[in-house]
Amino acid sequence: MRSGMFEGDGARLYHEVRGSGPALLMISGAGGDAGYYRAVAQELADTFTVITYDRRGNSRSTGRSPEPMDLARQAADARGLIESVAGGHALVFGNSGGAIIGLTLAALHPQVLTGLVAHEPPAVNVLPEGDPDRRFFRDMAALYAEAGAAAAGRRFAETTRGEGTYRWPDDLWKRFLDNQDHLFATEWPGFADFHPDTAALKGAPFPIVLGAGAADRGAYYARPAAEIARRIGVPWAEFPGIHMEFLRNPAVFAAALRALATQMLTGEGRLPTPWTHQPHPHG
């Protein structure tokens, strides 16, 4: 694993790079920390050059500000990392808020993507009018304003299936707690206001797949994936497990993502370069 700091626009972004092969940028959601993907990145490093990072204002990155952070700023950070660390092009995987950032990146900077996997974007604004899940971000913002980050964080965890059934790495948990005020005060409005740019995503010159975990059917953060896939006319895939199965069971999640990502990058069954013109093992 190689780590470093990328000089962004007014921030230094901590990032980690593992493996070799086609570039895969993994964008995390709430807490914005590369540590979410540490184990799954190690699993995927035999196939991809996996790039993970702490999003602006989170954990080991700088750039924390009291001003609301819009999604265009988040997408520009991801684009900058792809241009500087990945040679200008990458397949992007985003989970939760990271999937929302991935969808924004695809709409604003399509030239740097070779594909996008958006896993469980909590884009509640695509749900039908009157659906109670559309209130999620407003209700959480009200709780944060009334009772603070700790109360909002506890409630957030309670809404996420599977949380509490496995142990987070201690260092990741500590950094997440330190990021909670930044999440609810600064990042929350951008996630709450997100509406996918349907026209731009329909016209994307690369494959897009929306997905959700098998254990998350009906959850507010999983249902929008199917609706966005329907609106933009792209495939939808069911992943194993829960919202953060890559933390609970990284080997299983990596196997599913590896198969999907390889298919997206090779397309129509074409063989990737490392599998062509191989010498016979017996000479």
From TrEMBL:
Q: Which residues form the signal peptide?
A: none
Tell me the domain of life. Answer: Bacteria
Q: What keywords is this UniProt entry annotated with?
A: Hydrolase
Asked whether the UniProt record includes Hydrolase among its keywords, one would answer yes
Question: Recorded GO terms, molecular function?
Answer: triacylglycerol lipase activity
Gene Ontology terms describing biological process: glycerolipid catabolic process
What InterPro entries does UniProt report for this protein, alphabetically?
AB_hydrolase (IPR050471), AB_hydrolase_1 (IPR000073), AB_hydrolase_fold (IPR029058)
Q: Which residues cross the membrane?
A: none
Q: Does the keyword Hydrolase apply?
A: yes
Enumerate the SUPFAM superfamilies for this protein.
alpha/beta-Hydrolases
Q: Where is the AB hydrolase-1 domain?
A: 22-181
Stated name of the protein = Alpha/beta hydrolase
Q: Which organism is it from?
A: Streptomyces palmae
